[in-house]
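Hey, sorry to bother you again with one of my protein questions. A protein chain has come my way and I'm curious about its shape. I'm sending you its amino acid sequence along with the backbone structure tokens. I owe you a coffee for this, so here goes:
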Amino acid sequence: MKKLFACVLAAGLSSGLLLPVGAASAQEVQPIDRIAAVVDENVVLKTELDRAVANILAQYAGRENQLPPRDVLERQVLERLILLKIQVAYAQGSGIRVTDQEIDQAIGNIAQQNRISVEQLRQQLARDGGTYADFRTSIRDELLTQRLRQRFAQTRVAVSDAEIDAALAAQANSGTQYHLAHILVGLPEGATAEQIATAQKKIEGVKALIDKGEMDFAAAAVRYSDSPNALEGGDLGWRSLDEIPNAFADLMRGMSAGQVTAPIRGPSGFQLLKLVETRDASQAAPSMVTQYKARHILIRTSDTVTDAQAKAKADTLRARLAGGADFAEVVKESEDLNSRGKGGDLGWFTQDEFGPEFGGAVAALQDNQISQPIRTPAGWHIVERTGSRQTDVGDRNRRAQVQETIGRRKLEEEWNRFLREQRGEAFVDVRIGKAAAADAPAAPATPAPSGG
């Protein structure tokens, strides 16, 4: 069951429900819960922090020596929880909402992926000392932060044709991909000269530990990095050159697998970058894809229209179509204003353009066949597939892939900057032990060679 909720890692960290933590039974007398941190108008409870730390300890069972001391680990986990609270509050303040139906669907998907029922999921949560209500809350928070990130990408990230052209030219000369990891010693906005000097001394100390072989890179990242992925050993995954900032890309070209850069000063602080390995990815993007043409009717849910009411209306419209009603007439009741004026026509699209639920349903239809009502995050759809074709989209597909990878790189940079800004503007009062001292603006201490 350790992999049960891997797809909602951030939510699991928040709720502390992924693994057993030996919670007391409901019949026992419970002490008054302490506040670990105040985050604007929200709080992180000490029990939340303890459960989240227990999850990390369980995941590192047998490898506890790779973790930092307990107080440092608590600080890292608490910072994640603080950032989660900030993101959820910002999302809600921006008008982003998640319906109960969407939470139910996400939980159902988790259960299905792990080949258990939702009831078995409830039982697992109870055995692990958690509650189903807390788990639903963690899923809601995860969905809110995902949508906030998606909205952020749509409004703040743009990729120009010139950038795509340059990336395609670079790909033509090199099909290499790079597996990277990093260690970050963060600096606040407007860092003082003393803070910069202390951070530089710390990153140099970490580099010295790695060079002497006293600690491997992943263990050093877990212990010393300020990056959100510190507990994953600083792993950044596989990247092509167009997904790597230009300053780092130039370095990668001259490095061998296993090498670690000298400390690099960036916008968020000092970094060490490791080239873990390389691979040849010089494969042309597939040129032939299946496209579908369809028209649809959409009935949305809202604060005043329940999911059941929307489904009932969709069933009624589907029955009218089955009885011989003209689609062009029934579509006038569609709530998709963009397509309604075109008779519900969506044009030609690939299976993944409108999400997995919609695309999967269209792919399963025959041409000129009308679906039963389909549930997606947008609402209930009735779809008629009006055509399908194999299309050569070689150049367009390659450009779209390059645009996506550049956009992903830009999003990561802008998103991290946004989180730093929100963290800096938020009122955060850390109230537990050494974590409180670690949260102070003073620069981090230089690591001791003992690694303790």
